[in-house]
Write a structure and sequence with these properties.
237 residues, Rossmann fold, 45% helix, binds zinc ion, EC 6.3.4.20, queuosine biosynthesis
Amino acid sequence: MTEHASDKTALVLFSGGQDSATCLAWALSRFSRVETIGFDYGQRHLIELECRARLLDGIGAINADWAAKLGDGHTLTIPTLAEISDTALTRDVAIAMGADGLPNTFVPGRNLIFLTFAAALAYRRGIADIVGGMCETDYSGYPDCRNDTIQALQTALTLGMARDITLHTPLMWRDKAATWKLAKDLGGDALVDLIREDSHTCYLGERGARHDWGYGCGECPACRLRARGWSEYAAGV
Ligand code: ZN
């Protein structure tokens, strides 16, 4: 399973969603040690952070090698992001498309801030490799998910910290169906089932109804994207 054996430690941006859970498994299959970082920024779907413990337990149970590699988990609280944002992710307003063509779930600069905090923590802990689930294929038009943005930020962080920082984005060119397939390749049906059951995607933070793709309202853009990806994946398995 280990394609690129490494004696390095990676820091994974781990929110408790489908993408970051898959990225965590990806990192565990490549690095010798993996730490995680999550952010409490006043998101409506704060429940996603609570999903992390079950995912971590489950991922460790799937593969003893992975369990041995899992290191510290960090949670940073960034209330400032909600204070300066007026978005459907941080306020109780309906999700809609804005005049700029972006959905109002867009939190300006969110990934730039997350990756910069992650890099600062990585620096302090002697880690040079950061893994994030940014994706240009299925993205909702968020400009901070684009590969060009990530590459530019990698350059800025490396310059600004005078230390090589590599930003890994294994999902960048994968759609949601391909992300399910990657989970299958990394950890078999056990990992797919774990992510389906215990990862959280719904923007509204709903976990009441169980669909074949997992829990969520089924109507918000994140749920629809996850549902479509699952049906495409399931049709191809
Ligand atoms: Zn939803």
